[in-house]
Amino acid sequence: MTAPTKPPHTSPTDPAPGPPPGGSLHxxxxxxxxxNARDLPWRRPEAGAWGVMVSEFMLQQTPVNRVLPVYEQxxxxxxxxxxxxxxxxxEAVRAWGRLGYPRRxxxxxxxxxxxxxxxxxxxxxxxxxxxxLPGIGEYTAAAVASFAYGQRHPVLDTNVRRVFxxxxxxxxxxxxxxxxxxxxxxxxxxxEDEPTAARWAAASMELGALVCTAKSESCHxxxxxxxxxxxxxxxxxxxxxxxRGQTYAGxxxxxxxxxxAVLREAHGPVPQSALDRVWHEPVQRARALDxxxxxxxxxxxxxxxxxxxxx
Length: 311
Hints:
Layout: H1 23-36, H2 48-59, H3 64-77, H4 81-85, H5 89-96, H6 103-119, H7 127-131, H8 138-149, H9 158-169, H10 180-189, H11 194-210, H12 229-232, H13 252-265, E1 270-271, H14 272-276, H15 282-294, E2 299-300, E3 305-307
Antiparallel strand pairs: 1-3, 2-3
């Protein structure tokens, strides 16, 4: 979700075949981004590679408006990976607050420890070294290398995949899971020079976040509407597998969130009785608590006490 300093606009000399060729998309999307990109803290030069990495962990499945306050508090408390690495992992879970999917906090803590031990506390610029860090997958390694270091990598998040699906493939939505064909297309569309490729990655992502959204599309504001294969085909309805919807109320995720909220707010170990009060259904409550323990998010102690993990 970030971008390096604005580079000159260039396009590949020999764009990959396929309608439309990547070179015809790069300049209009990058020009649009230059005029419309949101001013986000992880896009500023002072954020550095660590700020970019923290934002990428937090933005997975979480909207920007919820991430912003937690991100700013996190970087104020832990401005470098070594600062976080010194803390107990439970402190990362506590500071994660209500962002959801709190295992991301544990993974980010583990990544900070590895960066401190393996790389002297500096987020590595090498893509292979990023990918070797615990908690870092294909997307995050490419995003950090591209957005923090201006390198040339295909960065395929949900927004980018949707833009490519519509503009190039001519379908309303991408598959539920990233496919080999999508990766091949992303590589084919990537500008040849590194600065433009990094700018393209950020610009296509922002286009999907602001204009070519999942719930609606603002074709009148889209810089590549005239070339969009899906629009030119008459915007055919999605005919693939049903799109997965996310529910929360009444799920184990909700119960886990309530249990963690009690532990985050406590200054010491919490008795079982305090956890029992947060959810009325005992079987689901026990299953959620067991899951938190199994995931390393909660540490059971003697005498029926629980706390956030210290190790």
